[in-house]
């Protein structure tokens, strides 16, 4: 097989970004959907979180089957699922239609996101693994930022239906590109770092047998590490999606114009990438994962306190709190993806460990936005949002302390 112009591992990351666009496409559309389809604030909260329903219920199951079904094949199925659900969403006539299709999009997102870390591990040498997993950790904020920035512009030109249909076409195109550039599952060698060039010769036919799923399930759930990274991701992702997802509505209620809303929210999501990429670099240079988690959760707590409680009437300081929340908090997912690969009980349980982490991450994202919306409805504003995010951060700090005790002393990354 000829070497492709694009690094296959990088294309896997771009496929994740494409999937994340479907998560980020909704927040800028909420004001439009409230006018066009009569979507209420509580329904908006469930629309934000419904995309996580599949991950919350099927994450572990998909993780268990990803290796046997094929990592590349699983990602392709996910991209085509996203394309179909988004295309159908353009014909939705009310919130119930969108809720069902958002759940289907969540299944597509799950099929794309779960196999990716394991596939990246097979496509790059160990010397590049922390850096590439740090980049992978940025797939969600990058996709969300692009959607938040481009969504208002696209909807102003072709409406919210055109926005849904355009992303359907993009997902289909990404599926075609991934199929053409990433070697088929059966053609990859089992050793990391050689997959991209192992499609020819006798070694190309080497296929590592995958242990039965009950054994992989037992190994994963009986180990301490997968539980710690999964719960940590839950308390991170739930508060991040709740804050970033409602920013457009918060700013519009404050009287800020539509174009500015898209730019401010996109920037708040985009700075999360700095933390993700930075965590990969810091880990590769020997930083301890638990220290990065401590810093990330502390910054998220302080950031939301600044944004929602400490600086009334000071919009610049409040926005600085949002940026602190997202940027420094971005060190958490990059660190957790690296931990998931390292703390998995074995190479054949990486997808299962990531699936368990994704399942708890989805549970956090499913619960976070409706909880924040409920609190805002009860108190008549967003000023108590920091209590929800602060509680999540305290739990995250406690979990990071447990990760420090679980870390293997012979691993240089710890």
Provide key terms for this protein.
414 residues; mainly alpha; Growth Hormone, Chain: A; 18 helices; 78% helix; disordered C terminus
Walk me through this protein's architecture.
The chain contains 18 helices and no strands. The protein has helices at residues 8-24, 30-37, 41-50, 53-69, 71-89, 95-113, 115-123, 126-137, 139-181, 213-221, 224-253, 258-270, 272-284, 289-310, 315-329, 331-343, 350-379, 385-406. The longest helix has 43 residues, at 139-181. It starts with 7 loop residues before the first helix and ends in an 8-residue tail after the last helix. The model is unreliable at 188-208 and 409-414 (pLDDT under 50).
CATH first level: Mainly Alpha
Question: CATH-wise, what's the superfamily?
Answer: MFS general substrate transporter like domains
Number of strands: 0
Mean pLDDT: 82
Instruction: Spell out the helices and strands N to C.
Output: HHHHHHHHHHHHHHHHHH
Summarize this entry quickly:
With 414 residues, the chain is mostly helical. It has a single domain (8-406), classed as MFS general substrate transporter like domains (Growth Hormone, Chain: A). It is built from 18 helices and no strands.
Compile the SSE list and pairings.
Elements: H1 8-24, H2 30-37, H3 41-50, H4 53-69, H5 71-89, H6 95-113, H7 115-123, H8 126-137, H9 139-181, H10 213-221, H11 224-253, H12 258-270, H13 272-284, H14 289-310, H15 315-329, H16 331-343, H17 350-379, H18 385-406
Helix pairs in contact: 1-5, 1-6, 1-7, 1-9, 3-6, 3-17, 4-6, 4-17, 5-6, 5-7, 5-9, 7-8, 7-17, 8-13, 8-16, 9-12, 11-12, 11-15, 11-16, 11-17, 11-18, 12-15, 13-15, 13-16, 14-15, 14-16, 14-18, 16-17
């Amino acid at each position: 097989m000829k070497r492709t112009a694009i690094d296959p591992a990088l294309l896997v990351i771009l496929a994740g970004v494409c999937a994340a666009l479907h998560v980020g496409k909704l927040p800028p559309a909420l004001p439009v959907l409230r006018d066009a389809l009569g979507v209420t604030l509580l329904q908006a909260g469930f629309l934000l979180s419904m995309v996580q329903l599949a991950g919350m219920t099927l994450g572990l199951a998909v993780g268990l089957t990803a290796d046997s079904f094929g990592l590349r094949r699983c990602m392709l199925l996910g991209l085509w699922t996203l394309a179909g659900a988004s295309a159908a969403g353009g014909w939705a006539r009310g919130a119930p239609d969108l809720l069902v299709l958002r759940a289907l999009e969540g299944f597509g997102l799950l099929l794309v996101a779960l196999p990716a870390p394991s596939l990246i591990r097979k496509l790059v040498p160990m010397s590049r693994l922390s850096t590439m997993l740090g980049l992978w950790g940025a797939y969600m904020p990058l996709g969300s930022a692009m959607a938040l920035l481009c969504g208002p512009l696209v909807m102003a030109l072709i409406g919210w239906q055109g926005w849904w249909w355009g992303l359907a076409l993009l997902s289909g195109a990404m599926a075609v590109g991934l199929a053409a550039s990433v070697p088929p599952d059966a053609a990859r060698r089992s050793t990391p770092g050689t997959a991209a060039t192992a499609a020819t010769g006798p070694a190309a036919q080497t296929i590592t047998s995958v242990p039965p799923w009950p054994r992989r399930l037992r190994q994963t759930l009986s180990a301490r590490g997968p539980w710690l990274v999964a719960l940590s991701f839950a308390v991170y992702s739930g508060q991040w999606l709740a804050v970033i997802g409602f920013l457009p509505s918060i700013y519009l209620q404050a009287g800020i114009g539509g174009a500015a809303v898209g730019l401010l929210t996109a920037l708040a999501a985009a700075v999360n990438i700095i933390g993700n990429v930075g965590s990969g670099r810091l880990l590769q240079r020997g930083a301890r994962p638990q220290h990065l988690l401590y810093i990330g959760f502390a910054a998220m707590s302080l950031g939301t306190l600044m944004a929602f409680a400490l600086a009334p009437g000071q919009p610049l300081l409040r926005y600085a709190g949002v940026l602190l929340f997202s940027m420094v908090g971005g060190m958490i997912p990059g660190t957790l993806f690296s931990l998931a690969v390292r703390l998995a009980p074995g190479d054949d349980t990486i997808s299962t460990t990531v699936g368990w982490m994704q399942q708890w991450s989805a549970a956090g994202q499913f619960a976070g936005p409706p909880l924040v919306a409920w609190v805002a409805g009860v108190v008549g504003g967003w000023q108590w949002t920091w209590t929800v995010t602060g509680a999540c951060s305290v739990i995250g700090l406690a979990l990071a302390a447990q990760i420090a005790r679980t870390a293997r002393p012979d691993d240089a990354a710890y």
